[in-house]
Amino acid sequence: MQLSPTLAWLVDVASDSAGADRLLAELGAHLVADGVPLAAGALTLEVPHPLIAKRTWLWRADSGQVIEALGFAPGGLAPDPPNDAGRRWLRDIVRGELHEDIVGRQDGPLLSWIGPRPFTADEIGQLRQAARFAATPLAVLAARATLRATLDAYLGRRSAERVLAAPLRRDLGETIQAALLYADLRNFTTLSETSPPGEVIAALDAWFDRIAGAVHAFGGEVLKFIGDGVLAIFPVVEASPRPACEAALRAAGAAEAGMAYLNAERGAKGLPPLAFGAALHLGEMLWGNIGAANRLDFTAIGPAVNLASRLEGLCKPLGRAVLVSGALAAETDMKLVALGSHSLRGIAAPCQVFTLPKT
Length: 359
Hints:
Blueprint: H1 5-12, H2 20-33, E1 40-46, E2 52-60, E3 66-72, H3 85-93, E4 101-103, E5 110-114, H4 121-155, H5 157-165, E6 173-185, H6 188-194, H7 197-217, E7 221-226, E8 229-235, H8 242-268, E9 276-292, E10 295-301, H9 303-312, H10 315-318, E11 322-325, H11 326-329, E12 337-342, E13 351-355
Helix pairs in contact: 1-2, 1-4, 4-5, 7-8
Pfam families: Guanylate_cyc
InterPro entries: A/G_cyclase, Adenylyl/Guanylyl_Cyclase_3/4, Nucleotide_cyclase
Protein name: Adenylate/guanylate cyclase domain-containing protein
């Protein structure tokens, strides 16, 4: 049996599609070329993500445009829309008199089509046959999306890209320059020993939301949650490190403001405030795989990381929430307050220390 161009494409090429948006657009275009009258289509994938329950891509036949709509998980950023939200949205935006939509699959990835007139029996047969042949490339796409979403959630976007692009060997890494942010909570041991576990976890989550949210908002990436601590980087991607340094400074300021707001909320509930310390530094580090032969970790190590950690330890004795090294301060025109030169445990040379001005 000779396959139609659409089915041949699904068998030979579709599994290599760059993403769900391209698969949907190209499948729609192939079906139109085969004579199926389509106005629009939708493809929905469920993804294992802390905030997103599913991702839906919406395609318009008249323009070839594909946009993405997100369905949020319970407790995420917004209520999860109904399962047919994508198809209802398509009916709303595509001009002209629309008729029934044909659902290709319901036991996994959801593929559906809308026509400008009722589909004939032959056209329905073509769409259903295409859906059967699409099962394998959709499964490949879903598995790829699951892997990527899982790595993004546990490693961060940049680190996930690096892990996916390289062999799983511990001798692989690269030296990068970045602004580092190292932060942790004060008196966390006392909190964990005097509070119920649920209250401790809630406090940790609230703290991580503020610090990680600020890091991500300014283009950084959280590399590690270390107990109650956070290690984040702002990689230098331009000729000058200034943008990365100023992004790190803005993130630290945003985290400080976020924690002030959180502590006001905690105070209204009769809960103690959460104090924290954060240190910013600019330097080079090895970014890559370390670990045992069969158990790897992807992280950043090196003198710059050590200095950031030691500098954070000065926050409490200096009475400041955020400290900035001289190396990072030299790469910004943002206003900082000099705190003098200080010795850091395990670091040979004294460090010039700065802080953010009080607001």
